[in-house]
Specification:
The chain is an alpha/beta fold. The protein contains 15 helices and 9 strands. An 8-stranded parallel barrel has the order 1-2-3-4-5-6-8-9, surrounded by 5 helices. β5, α11 and β6 form a beta-alpha-beta unit. The protein binds (3S,4R)-3-hydroxy-2-oxopiperidin-4-yl beta-D-xylopyranoside. (3S,4R)-3-hydroxy-2-oxopiperidin-4-yl beta-D-xylopyranoside binds next to loops.
């Protein structure tokens, strides 16, 4: 015990946290997600977890080659007051990605959620609203020019029925606001990749068609867009064929394709006192393999922007608070141990 303590003090405290919280280290022959994949494998992350949980950071460093900002570059966080930007959380994430050589994906410049109060209360004519969104987009994009490789410019502009989602953006900027947001982002950084990000293309044919029609329209009009994100918040019962269809049709645009927010729920019925069984872990593993295999085989290599999971471990996932239920949708358990889902993800990545 005393020898162990002495050893810890002499070496570094970093290596001497609770053993249970330590992710297993790869042996020389062991493959990690990033060493196996031919494209970036990312995770959405939170700055507080990054700085407070050593196992979180170690898992990210070992396994992943891409980082997305889960919340801290959303408008409410980064632009809390009209004349004040707060870069603190964003910087922690972006600096970590840059220092560890991981591709940084920014999320999200324009969304109908996470809008700060000063914007919901904003009074002004259409010119003033246009100035508001242009300045926001251009200030944030310029701040991270050269440090963020790609941006979700607009997130979730469509409803499941394929119509434009009514929001304060459509109300004040009009139905063509998405195109102008992309133009503003392009003016601020000529080389950053610009993405449209959306959920549900795998279960709503109408929404998928709406996103594809928008991409085709942008191409015709010369509106800059580089890629499409399929969030892929899904579950073990969702048919593979529908997921494959969404990926195949999105790839047919010729644009980059990002599976941008992957998680796979196992408690779709939101059962109370839910206890996962081995059979459920195996089905989750199979779903991860199916999604990743579909992406790897259906998206041409030059269009593979990568696959990003929405956070790292079951303990850090947004799903339980979103569904108000217990669920375990990610490849690592709350102690950062690899689940069967991890093996499923890894085997799907293998060429
Ligand atoms: C979620 C975050 O994960 C939560 O922490 C936050 O409370 C709400 O937003 N689609 C998106 C993401 O594009 O931005 C959302 O992230 C999840 C759904």
């Amino acid at each position: 015990m005393i020898r162990n303590l002495l050893f810890c003090t002499l070496l570094s405290l970093t290596y001497c946290h609770q053993p249970a919280a330590q992710p297993s280290q790869p042996t020389a022959s062991e493959h990690t997600l990033r060493s196996t994949a031919a494209f970036p494998v990312g995770a959405a992350i939170s700055p507080s977890l990054l700085t407070s949980k050593p196992a979180y950071r170690q898992t990210l460093e070992r396994e992943f080659s891409g980082i997305t900002s889960e919340n801290y570059l959303k408008m409410r966080f980064v632009h809390p007051e009209k004349d004040r930007y707060d870069w603190t959380g964003g910087n922690t994430i972006v600096d970590f990605a840059n220092q560890t050589n991981k591709r940084m994906h920014g999320h999200a410049l324009v969304w109908h959620q996470s809008v700060p109060d000063w914007v919901t209360q904003f009074k002004g004519d259409s010119l003033a609203w246009e100035g508001l969104i242009r300045d926001h987009i251009q200030t944030v994009v310029k701040q991270y020019k050269g440090k963020i490789a790609a941006w979700d410019v607009v997130n979730e502009a469509f409803l499941d029925d394929g119509t434009l989602r009514p929001s304060l953006w459509t109300e004040h900027l009009g139905p063509d606001f998405v195109a102008r947001c992309f133009q503003y982002a392009r003016q601020a950084d000529p080389s950053v990749k610009l993405f449209y990000n959306e959920y549900g293309q795998e279960y709503s044919a109408k929404k998928l068609a709406a996103v594809l029609a928008m991409a085709a329209d942008f191409r015709k009009r010369g509106i800059p867009i580089d890629g499409i994100g399929l969030q892929m918040h899904t579950h073990i019962d969702h048919p593979d064929a529908q997921i494959e269809n969404a990926i195949r049709q999105t790839a047919a645009t010729g644009l980059l394709v990002h599976i941008s927010e992957l998680d796979v729920r196992i408690n779709q019925a939101k059962a109370a006192n839910f206890v996962p069984t081995d059979a459920l872990w195996q089905r989750q593993k199979a779903k991860f393999t199916a999604i990743v295999t579909a992406y790897r085989t259906l998206v041409p290599a030059a269009q593979q922007h990568g696959i990003t999971t929405w956070n790292v471990s079951d303990g850090d996932s947004w799903i339980p608070s979103f569904c108000q239920c217990q669920d375990f949708p990610l490849p690592f358990d709350k102690d950062f141990k690899k689940k069967p889902a991890y093996e499923g993800l890894l085997s799907g990545l293998k060429p």
